[in-house]
Amino acid sequence: MCKVIEKKEVIEENTVICAECGERIPKEKAYLFHNDYYCLYCLDEVSSVCIHCGERIPEDEICVLNENVYCEDCYDEYTFVCDRCKNRFENKENMGDDNIDLCRDCYCDYYTRCSEYGKVIHNDYANYFDAYNETAYCDECFRDECNTRYLHDYSYKPDPVFRGSGNRFFGCELEIDGAGKDEDNAQELCEAVNTHVENIYIKTDGSLDDGMEIVTHPMTLEYHMKNMPWSDICRIALCMGYKSHNVSTCGLHIHINRTAFGETMEEQEECIARILYFFESNWNELLKFSRRTENQLNHWAKRYGWKCEPKSILDDAKKCYSGRYVCVNITNYSTVEIRIFRGTLKYNTIIASIQLADAICDAAVFMSDSEIKSLAWSTFVSELDKEKYPELIRYLKERRLYVNETVALNMERGEE
Hints:
- The structure is a single chain.
- Helix content is 37%, strand content 18%.
- By secondary structure, the protein is an alpha+beta fold.
- Among the domains are: 1-49; 170-398, Creatine Kinase, Chain A, domain 2, CATH 3.30.590.
- Helix 6 runs antiparallel to helix 8 (230-240).
């Protein structure tokens, strides 16, 4: 009897009961898990092994992703929730950055990266310097890049810097074509012109085949004549192979600040109406001055149409659906834009065009409606100040628009 009891004690000492199936198993083949013993089969039934740390975890505490088992700690550490679709993925699939977690599909459909530092940005807030959307920038890097670039996107519009003393300023846009939308060329032009202060910036323009648009900050007529190095622009651009007159794509546009025409909106509109009347009543002479054809002006800078009163022309102009493609564009909030002039890389022609704009402004500001209506072209040009407008007088004579006086045409290279 004692031997039987002793044998039973030995068996119980060397075996354990599986907490799941109740079978007695040798202790050396049993697995202790959460203070209970299990056979191998039952252990796999009640627990799993974390794929990362190798720890065994109860079935009711496991986390599963893509058929992989995680403990809660590893699940939090080695997986993520996409901030857009809210689904969970393994960390290796994270296409986001320190600020946002994104799965591959959400990133490809809705986001891109700043090319400078790799910051993830939504497509709606990405900035580009070209129409092909090849290189994206976040807002901060875009501003920094703008400050170091020389060839800007067409939408680039820095705060205007007014050059010269006075109340009438002219901002010019000169289009040049045929030698590239080229950062190096833009840099050379800017460095030659902006030696002490920024006078110009350069942009791309979709209306040009292979060129750029040179834009000046607002300048007084005196500043354009004495301080703005237009002759350097013409010389350098020509040496690079650009053209402006001898292509069909280029124009010279001149913006005048609206405040030059008066302090109140009423005063400004009265002057603008007289400018429009001047254009309509002297259209043939201005067409000849512009060096454009009638068809070209109909496309880029068409007239509004004759009316007997300046105000009537202005009223019609406000209803015009041609946008900015008119001889005098009045759609801008702060400027009036004269658009009739053909592009040029001849110094005298550029200055003459700005001087003509100034003379027209003088007529609009200092004349009444009745006086502007009775002003003939011959009277207008004969009364021009020869000391103030020498380039304009010369150009008028070259174009046979100056009181029947003519001079030998200047055939030097430049009118291109």
